[in-house]
Specification:
0% strand
Length: 101
């Protein structure tokens, strides 16, 4: 994907966040939205940090999903933030880890 492709996908971030948070969203929709965010972080960091405020609430909430697949996708995303996100994601990763410890 890369940082260049991220600009074209900005419009998909709010749609993905709404799709996963909707009252009738399925486990597959939730997992797909989280995986999109994971990919944006992994392949377009640190530029993806500007979108973080839009998708981080969904990622944090997904850590408590009743679906193991959704929880795993969210946990993977926080690992990707730590590995690829750089300074832009440091506070997010540490703050979330401390709050949920």
């Amino acid at each position: 994907m890369g940082a260049g492709a991220l600009t074209a996908r900005h419009r998909w971030v709010p749609l993905s966040a709404r799709a996963w948070q909707g009252p009738t969203s399925t486990e597959a929709q939730q997992k797909t939205a989280i995986i999109f965010f994971d990919d944006a972080i992994e392949f377009a960091s640190p530029q993806s940090a500007e979108l973080a405020l839009q998708f981080l609430p969904a990622m944090q909430g997904a850590l408590y999903s009743t679906s193991p697949a959704v929880r795993q996708a969210a946990a993977y995303g926080f690992g990707v933030m730590a590995q690829h996100g750089g300074d832009a994601y440091t506070r997010v990763c540490v703050g979330t880890a401390v709050r949920h410890a």
